[in-house]
Amino acid sequence: MDFEKQSYWRDRFAREESFEWLVTSSDLMAILDPLLASLSLGPDARICHLGFGTSDLQNHFRARGFSAITNLDYEPLACERGRALEVTRFGDSRMEFRVADVTQLPADLGAFDLIIDKSTVDAVACGGDDMVLRMGKGVERCLKPGAVWVSLSYSSARFSDERLPFDVEVLHKFPVPKMSPTEPDVFHWCYLLRRRAPGVRLGRAELEGTDRVSGETCGSGFQYERESQTTMERATVS
């Protein structure tokens, strides 16, 4: 599947109104709430959600009192879906929904206190390491001093490229539910990225892990996630 191509997402969003990649927004927010408290972000803190698609993550930030939320996606249909989800939840639409390519962030975007993506970096990675680097450099330019980028990925080696201008730590590992006790442990990785101090480089070995999808192509990782979620949905129904 061509996850890095706009045509894929246009076709998908034409028939999809809501979908959460990797983990639910509620589960992700349970990890983010302590971080938000530690950052001492006020209600006017600027938050940017990259590649929001049909996720409702931005609604969880609004429900916590944040008012300056910018949601970016390069497929216009995502903006329609995002506004509809906000109206359904709150009765009105106050957040900014903007068409933009996360590998070419607009110059007038401004700076943010928190930037977050929920597996958008995995889709970008389908275009190769250079595309992830372009995304990373754009994010760095849009971070206020002391601000952070939180990124959710299926890969334990997503940010192992030494060219990326960030210090990277694992904020949390979400275990993927098993269909059988004999299946190996698989995790989804929540990363915390801060602008790297000048002259500091982080080696690949310091970031790589042993989860099953590391080293696979991005398409196979997405397909694994899609099949896993479909299987879980069927199990819940039955």
UniProtKB/TrEMBL annotation:
Q: Which domain of life is it from?
A: Eukaryota
Pfam (any one):
Methyltransf_11
Q: Which family does it belong to?
A: Belongs to the methyltransferase superfamily.
Which Gene3D superfamilies has this protein been placed in?
A: Vaccinia Virus protein VP39
Q: Does the keyword Methyltransferase apply?
A: yes
Domain Methyltransferase type residues, every copy: 49-148
SUPFAM superfamilies for the chain? S-adenosyl-L-methionine-dependent methyltransferases (SSF53335)
GO MF annotations for this entry?
Answer: methyltransferase activity
Identify the InterPro entries for this entry. Lys/N-term_MeTrsfase_sf, Methyltransf_11, SAM-dependent_MTases_sf
Matching PANTHER family = METHYLTRANSFERASE DOMAIN-CONTAINING PROTEIN, SAM-DEPENDENT METHYLTRANSFERASE SUPERFAMILY PROTEIN
In Swiss-Prot or TrEMBL terms, this protein is called: Methyltransferase type 11 domain-containing protein
